[in-house]
Amino acid sequence: AAAPMQGAADASDLSLLPEGPCSSLTMPPAGSPSNASIHTPRGQEVGLSAGDQIWTPCTRNGYRKSTIISVADDSFVVDDVQEDASAEPQAGRKSVVVARSAVRPFYDYGPEQTWADNTEMVHLDEANILENLRRRFHKDEPYTYTANVLLAVNPYKQIPGMYSAEKIDGYRGKNFGALPPHPYAIADRAYRQMQREERNQALVISGESGAGKTETAKVAMHFITQISRTGQEHGERIQDKIISSSPILESFGNASTVRNVNSSRFGKYNTMHFNRVGHLKFAGIQTYLLEASRVVRQQPRERNFHVFYEMLAGLDDETKVDLLLDSSVKYRLLYCDDAKPWELDSPEQRREGAKFEELKAALSVFVSSETQTSFWEVLAALIHLGEIQFADISGDFAVPDGCEDASPLRRSSNGTSAWTASPVPLSSLPSASPQSENTQQGDPATDEARVKITADTVDNLMNAADLLGVSGAQLESALAWKERKVNGSSSFSQRTKAQAEQTLQSIIKILYKRLFDHIVAKINESSQVGHTEVPGNDLTNKLNSMGTLDIYGFERLQTNSFEQLCINLANERLQQFFIEEVLLAEQRTYKNEGLSVCQWELPDNKPVVNGIGDIMKILNDHSLRLIKGLISRKDNKDAQFCETIHKELVKPGAPIIALRLDAAAARAGRAAKRYDGFQIRHYAGDVSYSTAGWIDKNSDSLVPEVEALLSEATKDLTKVLSDKSSIDAKKTVNSVSSKYLGSLQELLATLKDCTVHYIRCFNPNDRRQPGVFMQKYVLDQVIQCGTVELVRIMHGGYPNRCNLKDLRRRFAQMLPEELQHYDDRNFIAGIMEAFRIPRKDWTVGVTQLFLKAGQLRMLESLHDQGATADGDMIRKIKSHFAHKKFRSAVNAVKVTNYLRKCRKFRVRQGLHRVARLYVRLSRWLRAVRLRMYGPPTEEAPNKAEEEQVDVCQQDTSLVGHSSLALVAPLQLRCRRPCALPTNGYSPQLFMALNSDEDGQYATFLQSDINMANPIADDILKLWQRNMTESVLYHDGRQVICARMSSMPFHRMPSVDSRAVTTGSLDDLRRVDCHESGRAFPVGAPEAASDAIPAVTCMCQHKVDRQLFATCDAQNRISVWWWGGTDPSDHHRPAVRMMGGLCPRLEKGTSIFHMTFLSADAVPRRISEKGGRVLVLLTHKQDSRWMSIEVMAVYAARFSLECIQPVQIETSSPEPGEAEVTFFAASHSERILMLGGRGLLQFWQVCETPAGQIELQLIENVAWTFRDIKHSVMVSVLSTPPPLLHGMQDWVMVGSSDGQIYGWKFDKRDDHTIQLNPDVSGRFRYNSHTRDVPIRCLVGTYGNSPDAHHRQMQNLGLPYSLFLNRVPMDDRSFYSLGDDGMLLAWNLVEGEGWTRVLQVSLMEAAAPSTGLRVACHSSRLAPQAMLVADRSRRTLRCFNRMAPDEAPEDVVCYAG
Length: 1455
Description:
By secondary structure, this protein is of the alpha+beta class. Helix content is about 30%, strand content about 25%. Helix 4 (about 215-225) packs antiparallel against helix 5, helix 5 (about 230-255) runs antiparallel to helix 12 and helix 6 (about 305-315) packs across helix 8 (about 345-365).
């Protein structure tokens, strides 16, 4: 048998965790459900009830078997772990509560049952997979399939017969799945696929350190060499070389770590190349990232590479004398503080000596004994170089604080000569930059260096120089002096002690790495002898390769450095490759084959891979800066590098995060600092990295003077190990990271060209003991390697699949001749039906047969037994196929008829598209010509144009509601001049709560409550009855307020039976908004027109409806808060000033209109400072332009955000022809609406990336709709849009010709807003009198007194706060014409906006004056509507729910 798989374990010991859950909870109360169900990863619903057993999470074992005691809504109450499935629940036993989502179903297979393929189990989840692996492990069955992936658990022992020659013969040529799981099955399938498909194959063997990857790779390669069709002599020669390369690579590339006594410290990709007949021609090895830093530094309880110890133990005494070595000496390069050399003739020394003999025997296959001697000389030289120590003799060298010795390697405290990692980070050491401020110029021939080699280690320097064949004096000079060449002349500068030690370390590391690469090259060269005749030396031409990737496992050590980052990057890339090439490919296969298999969301580790790539780029940049002398000695280069990573890559949500700082350790002076490293969120968990020394580790070249010294050596091997190209090279970075990334990219490219087979290796315990299976330890590995994701894809799918043509050739004799004429799909389906394989266990795709786990084995067994179908089954198959053909014919007829219908439908649909496209192109052409040639000259519209029929179009996107008419005629006109705008200001009506009365009616809540109704409703009704609302009316020069009581609209039997009927409107006053803030009774001397400044325009905040802004004739703007009036106190101020501003307007400029912006339309930078945004529409005298100015208003200041000029066009230059009637913000406040005579424009309120407000024109509607150009836009209303994806606002506009227009605005993906012309235009069902202006469009807030009660109770808000922000109804509004006709509109399903009420509210006004009215709905009494008539100087209250009743009191005012 082959050697058992070697391994170690994770550094963290999960066995220290307490057994069982963290806390105990009591049982749920009586009456809880007694049964429930959970959904398994198979998608099955498993019913569970009390007494059933399930898997529950366990901090020690991952999952444990528990018994359900009772079932709650979303959790289970379970007992403690029950190892005996037959145990009865015991009274008084401790119980715990677990969430339903955390448990996994348990199925009792019996104590001995195991599954060779995890996909064969009833329940597929991590708990049942873990249990199956545990049972197989204890039965000495370390291998398990998960579909096509082999899971291998390291047994840490020899298993008799597991890798015998009989086993090899048994797996040769067998179908995958026909025999128990084994690496031989994976290797055999890969070999046969290579032969059949003539495509390269690759075995990717992954797992953590100590999981047995290397041994598994050797097992697979041994099998392939045995079954290949290779001549005996040639095959044995290549096999010997493949087998012999393993001990060489292990000695030079493996080391003992805390987790594994034989840990691979490099990655390797072994390739075997075969010709088309399967003849093994040659083999090769490609290596990745040798951990060269291990040569000079090891962590505690770890060793250097094996070859050093094997050489000291196995060399004869004479050779040791020649190499000046002594195996009893504790060399600094090889032993840590707590380690010591072996005693003479100890078991350890004999074992290492035996390995050295094996190493020499393996090397003899590739190189001569003389070459081997040169290898030992180089290794001995490195040991001597490791003994060298430096002394600082300059006297002015400053040692970093807290460091007795600036050397990165220090002598241990026990007086031995072991080299250990210094507690001082390398980043605190002086930089080796040539521009160091303390670096002094000098001449080695005349001046004394700043450092020198200590007297007791000078002999080591000379010994190393002799073994390398270089001059000892020149080597000492190169360590103490740095040479720089400029324009052919040389200059020298003194090295500091730290710089000399860093140079020495670089020599040791790079020489060992080059020696390793040289040996690998020798192995490849020897393995390819005899094949150089291939043209272009392309040995892989016309050959197929079988590769085995043995890559280092994921590492998370106590101290993680640059090497661990590279190792973990490789694992991240391979995990990403596994997800993309296996899991996603599995989903694509099902889709391409026409199979309906559910899709799964897979983990994405691309952000981690990209983040590590960015770290490498930053590292290379800092390395280049160091080489070019841009980092001075005073700079901490490693801290600067880490700081750059924090600034550029540490962001919220990013996979790279800052180190977690330990406050207690920081106080003790032991904790890492912020810029000592960082953390990365890998797929296998978070890992902290220390960046000390990374810039030095990233350098893969020696200083030029050392390279020159090595190139002139007398020893041939030393010359070979030198790099002459870097002696005169420019200052560029020869970085380890760039080479590693390039090699890794080449590896992935190689794997993409291969059919990849996966073997996942697992470590059963962290003690390297046989028979010990630590469940939680293995569970973490199972989850991290993606096995769960693989199972989730395979559970509902078919893990085994075969090509239909291959199956037909193989199984053709299983069906009679009369069925041979069927195509491949029907023939294979006939085989499956003939042998009664359950239909749920197979399906036929386009080119492949898909089988559940285990069914292929059954099919192979039938074939081996020579089974044939019986006559009854043949008749059933023929009948089935006949019915199938008949159904196909019927379906063909149906499809033909359907296609005919589709053709007619497409013709009709095409005509509709053409007509719609014609309309759009015509409007676009009109708009373009208007921009190019200007507006046309005045043309009197003829009668025919006025009587054109509207083209109507259903709005299918607006929840099926809206039916709007489009304006059909598209005609071009000549140019028209611009006109002087005038302010066509219409009266305005506002409603606000008398907030000062809020809270005065608490005593009413304790009495007069009707107990027949819910108390909450009665309390709300009492609050409504006793609260009042203020009506504020602005007629263009003054603000009049009245007090409205809601009592007449809220009737309660228990109260109204004895209440005195009163009017709803009283307490009429005139408000001084700019000076005193008081509201004076109308008729009082203080209310005279000359006593109170005139108010020219006014607006109300849409979110805080108590907030107003007014402007006087001097353009002074006041922002104030309305508190309300008290009939008993005329002296109390009704207005509280919140701020004001006086914009710096040019002389002759007046403010026409104002509007607030609120909610999302206000940038955060303004709202965070308590500011508000006010938009002004201004006009300068005699100018044909207007301006929209956006102001940010604060308590004591204001700022101008932006100015947008607006040009007004009309048919005549007379002043009255350019009247502006309204300027307001839409419901979302992202659109500004500007209307007037022949004017309707919509502007978008945008926010730039810098947070500034800007305006963009959405549409100048008058350019494209002719009817609007010849009428006056009188009124506007924007209601909340229906809940549609992408819809921004819904705007309705009333015109002077009695039309109502609706405009739908959509929000694009780029956050811009566009007008949707397809569902915009005139209302279809409008019954207003033609040519009678639509004076008001009024929104509503409900239709009943208690319309808000339920919503407010659900929100839990105070009534006053709720009413202040209650939204407008989105499915109803009212329109009022100049003839007094009031129409109610509702949004009806399938019909759009439909008129539901028409009533005459007031008498028509004289045609010469027209109605000058303003309307507003009440929020306190939702069914009440207030109407202010400027021409009749009246305020009246109208009950919308009782349209036949006369309006409420008429209040006259003197204004």
